[in-house]
Amino acid sequence: MADISAGGAPQSVGNIQSSYMAQIQRRRLYGGLTILIFVVLMVSGFNIADDRNAGGFWEGLHQIGHYPADVLSEAWEKRADLPGLIAKSFPALVETINIAAVSTLIGLVGGIFLSLLGTRGLGKWPRLIPLFRRISDIMRAVPEIVIALVLIFVLGGGPVPAMIAIAFHTAGALGKMFSEVAENADLKPVEGLASTGATWSQRMLLGVLPQVAPNYISYSLLRFEINIRASAILGFVGAGGIGYELRNAMAWGPGRFDEAAAIFILLFGTIVFFDQVSSRYRNRLTEGQGQ
User: If I label 153, which of 10, 111, 185, 291 is the partner at 20 to 30 A Cα–Cα?
Assistant: First the structure.
């Protein structure tokens, strides 16, 4: 027995060491192949994009700073007019914020229903849980700009298509995040309410929502930040708001660069402001910070 154990120990250590080195070599091989595939995809993708762009990337690369320089120089020359231009663009900013706020509220309501109906152990119709999950997946898979373009074609330009598009996407995104939160809720209050004859709506309202409300509000505030940016971007395709004014100013070219700079300043300050405010309240809700 002593000879076997004495002779077997070095052999087992050697086997472990060789197995470990083999795993290290395989990991390095897989890592190298992954990097190689990534580089090949990047190079091929760039070449295709450059060809589709009429091969003008390298020719125009040295001019990349000309447009910002023109905007800044004209804005500096007319810096005395910037406060007036900012005040002029403020109503468009209010419209953008309204689009984001209304779409977030509508998406919040839709996300709550999708999450509760699509969460295992909470769904009113257990057999339809996969259906509600797929609906949520589809709603968040379609980009807002695609929905907005279709609605603009049908309804015409304005804030309504942007609001519907953002609310549709928000409901799907929040439905997914809310569902993950609801899955971690304690089911004992729900079971207690069920034993007293409470309906499904009463069980969700009294047994689940009080547990998940802080996280729901936190995710909604985060989504509100995202929707402000989305509503500004949708303005470039004719959906109203400050993005529409910025597109017009940029498309006009020299002579209105000072207006474009004023809109940039206003939009940047607004996004930073709402980021800070929502981050503060999200920390209060989730971690008890910022008291």
Answer: 111
Distance CA 101, CA 107 (A): 10
Tokens of 166: 């953002």
Give residues with Cβ within 8 angstroms of 28, minimum separation 6.
none
**CA angle (53, 55, 61) in 5-degree steps:** 90
Distances (CA, A) of 108 to 70, 114, 167, 272: 42, 10, 8, 23
The predicted-structure confidence for 140-162, as pLDDT tens digits, reads as follows: 888 888 898 888 888 887 888 89
In sequence order, which residues have a C-beta less than 8 Å from that of residue 119 and are 6 or more positions away?
129, 179, 182, 183
179 close to 114: Cβ distance less than 8 angstroms = yes
Tokens of 241: 């708001």
Q: Which of 206, 211, 221 is nearest to 182 (CA)?
A: 211
What's the pTM value of the predicted model, to 2 decimals?
0.75
